[in-house]
Amino acid sequence: MVLRLLVAAALGGIVGFERQLADEPAGFRTHLLVGIGAALFALVSISVPNDTSRIAAQIVTGVGFLGAAAIIRSGPVVRGIATAASLWVVAAVGVATAYGHWTTALVTTAVSVVVLRRVKRLEGHLRRWRTKRATLVLGLAAGQDVDTVVRRISAAGMLVGLIEASEDATGRSVTINLEVPAHLSPDAAADAARAVAEVRTLTWSV
């Protein structure tokens, strides 16, 4: 039982180390603890007759709440969804290890690291094939809320990414990074913003 707990902790730590390298809020320690915690619950369930499936289901529910805490929303930008999924997978690896499914746990860990580390690049290539990346620089009046501009751009069909704001001699400057669907022109974003803000520059690439 102790060996299974240690293996579950190690496998969870491997996935967590990858998340640590990606600078995610839930990193090495969190994943290690989720792995060993799920394994312990599973080991306890083995000693409780007819209660194994119920405890396993409760592990899934509990980790779901923990994963929700890893998802961060900053305005229109959402981060941490992949990390929340990795916590869920690590819990499953911990349960598999506790039940003695060594090969399944090892393969799942390896595949998870590959997906988190490599598939993100493929995802980026697919996104670039379907969209254009655009950078829109706007001038806003002092105290003007950028949310109004973001809503107008989103309503035009653009996906709003990172937003950066700075103050200069001419007022407030806001840089908005966009992903524009292939069937739309980036000029539509500038047109949507122009009604409430000064459009300074618009650049894009396929």
Please tally the helical runs, counting DSSP H or I stretches of 4 or more residues.
7
Contiguous runs where pLDDT drops below 50 for at least 5 residues = none
Order of helices and strands: HHHEEHHEHEEHE
- Rounded to an integer in angstroms, the radius of gyration calculated over CA atoms is 23 Å
Q: What does the largest sheet look like?
A: 4 strands, antiparallel
Mean pLDDT, as a whole number? 81
- Based on helices, strands and strand pairing, what is the structural class? alpha+beta
Outline type = elongated
Strand order of the largest sheet: 4-5-3-6
**Helical content band:** 55-70%
What's the total number of strands? 6
What does this structure look like?
By secondary structure, the protein is an alpha+beta fold. The chain has helices at 2-21, 28-46, 52-70, 81-98, 102-130, 146-155, 187-194, and strands spanning 72-74, 77-79, 131-140, 159-168, 171-181, 198-205. It has 2 domains: 2-100, no CATH class; 130-205, Alpha-Beta Plaits (2-Layer Sandwich), CATH 3.30.70. The strands form 2 sheets. Strands 4-5-3-6 form a 4-stranded antiparallel β-sheet. A hairpin with a 2-residue loop joins β4 (159-168) and β5.
Which structural traits does this protein have?
elongated; four-stranded antiparallel beta sheet; 206 residues; two-stranded antiparallel sheet; Alpha-Beta Plaits; alpha+beta
